[in-house]
Amino acid sequence: MNALLIVMLIIWAISGVGLIVFVMLHSGKGTGLSDMIASSLYSTQTGTNIIEKNLDRITIALAIVFMLSLLVLMIIYPQGTIVR
């Protein structure tokens, strides 16, 4: 394995796990994990909005990194050309 492959796989895996974590932190139609965290940190509604906006930004950034790293891996190593 060359260094580019290892770096791209690490970036892809970390962004994938981070994406899962930050999507799970978002509040849905009911109460979510972010509401429990926000209620302990802030008692006002404005604090929750700031936390949700930051969660949105981080989630979007992780999704972009995930997709770009996936595209780079697809371009560099098409159709399973990775040899052990």
UniProtKB/TrEMBL annotation:
Could you tell me which Pfam families the record lists for this protein?
A: SecG (PF03840)
Q: How does it sit in the membrane?
A: Multi-pass membrane protein
Keywords attached to this Swiss-Prot or TrEMBL record, sorted alphabetically, are:
Cell membrane, Membrane, Protein transport, Translocation, Transmembrane, Transmembrane helix, Transport
Transmembrane feature ranges: 6-25, 58-77
Which compartments is it annotated to reside in?
Cell membrane; Membrane
Asked whether the UniProt record includes Transmembrane among its keywords, one would answer yes
GO cellular component assignments: plasma membrane
For this chain's UniProt record, which GO biological process terms are given?
Answer: protein secretion
GO terms, molecular function: protein-transporting ATPase activity
| Highest taxon above the source species | Bacteria
Q: Does the keyword Protein transport apply?
A: yes
Please give the chief subcellular localization of this protein.
Answer: membrane
Q: InterPro entries in the record, alphabetically? A: SecG
What does the function comment of this entry state? Involved in protein export. Participates in an early event of protein translocation.
Record family assignment: Belongs to the SecG family.
From the Swiss-Prot or TrEMBL record, give the protein name.
Protein-export membrane protein SecG
Organism this protein belongs to: Slackia exigua (strain ATCC 700122 / DSM 15923 / CIP 105133 / JCM 11022 / KCTC 5966 / S-7)
